[in-house]
Specification:
309 residues; alpha/beta; Spore Coat Polysaccharide Biosynthesis Protein SpsA, Chain A; 5-stranded mixed beta barrel; 13 strands
Amino acid sequence: MGQHPVTKAVIPAAGLGTRFLPATKATPKEMLPVVDTPAIQLVVEEAASIGLTDVLLVTGRNKRALEDHFDQAAELETILAAKGDAEKLALVRRSTDLADVHYVRQGEPRGLGHAVLCARRHVGDEPFAVLLGDDLIDARDELLSRMVALRESFGGSVVALTEVPRSQIHRYGCAAFEAFPDAGHPDVVRVTDLVEKPATDQAPSTYAVIGRYVLDPAVFDVLEGTAPGRGGEIQLTDALRELGSRVPASSGGGVLGVVFRGRRYDTGDRLSYLQAVIRLASEREDLGPDLNDWLRSFVAERLGTGSRS
């Protein structure tokens, strides 16, 4: 269709991280380590892995650590080089070399839709990806590249969907959808409605919108006119709902969905965060064997203790 290629990624990172207090009192939640790598770096790595190396972080107050992390650490690099520690030097330089990272402040927390709107000047009149830092997609499972390919083939916007238990759907934006045979794959659907955090008995499905989007630039004009919705915030879901009612896709309307069935880690939730750390560490060659041995003995001990109580 001659669509403009997607080259830019926007990562909202202005949240206060109150669920992780007191750890996030002075440390951005995005800097919490997943084993030994900050969550935000994993998200930037995901974008860069498919060529989206022009990255905008939408930040807020007390987020200076994010800028420092992606900046060059000259003193540390000099010390490591002098010690001949090439392995750690490469780790330090990796975050600096990943992408061309830019920053804009959101100012006040007015919702995800407002955070996306803050990216307008940087993005311009181009399609772009949005990656939420709380959602980590396992690098072994394809998602963002599929979404970009769909945008470039059909225009419009693309959201990622995953099925969740109905008891949890109130925590998410929820999608109603129908088949989209033009894509040639049953996991690609046309979104017909979106509802932000619906009541369990009013949800149109059990498919939740998760933190990966590829958006048409027409979303900016819609967001400009979107009134605060649920929680008194400007909801991206509400803007996408309006875009979805527009046809054809080339006008900035039409919303497709990709049903994701791979591995996803919600690092915005304390239990899911711990599960992600354990799961990913257990699969690493340098940590996995010893950790798995310990986990087996720990679980056996806990079960044994439970049986005696």
